[in-house]
Fold this protein.
Amino acid sequence: MNVDIGSRLRHVRLMHNLSQRELAKRAGVTNSTISLIESNASNPSVGALKRILDGIPIGLAEFFSFEPEKPRKAFYAADELVEIGKGPISYRQIGDNLFGRSLQILKECYQPGADTGKVPLVHEGEEGGIVLSGRLEVTVDDERRILGPGDAYYFESRRPHRFRCVGPVPCEVISACTPPTF
């Protein structure tokens, strides 16, 4: 039996409205541990998975017994996009259930000065995006660029990266990443 533990964990975490950071804190593991498991870059031991599931809380039997339906919906109205961000950065996701999906698409909006943080993001996969409006500073490794409308980025997500809105107006971006990481 081949079980996609990463997608299953992401689905259960989102069902309980937990961020990766919050689940990691509850389980006493690092945020990157949750990210690596959800992207199937790391396969946890049974003991480690149980500790993580205790942070939700859900038992191992329930975790392996439920079978969420794979999304079949193809079209989404603007008001059906699911907000998964908070504060000065909005991430509106296409679809609320990404179980079994290998691509995550977001409409992002960064308020002036909004930043993904001083510590660069690092996770498995690839991501790309196109700036629709405003100006976005994108840092990948030691390379930094300010992108404007029509400019784009695409890189391997294991390279340290961060995003920051520069200028006096919000910045809107359409992005995609694989596998889903939020």
Summary: The beta strands are 82-83, 89-93, 104-110, 126-133, 135-140, 143-147, 152-156, 161-166, 171-178. The first helix runs from residue 5 to 15. Helices lie at 5-15, 20-27, 31-38, 46-54, 60-65.
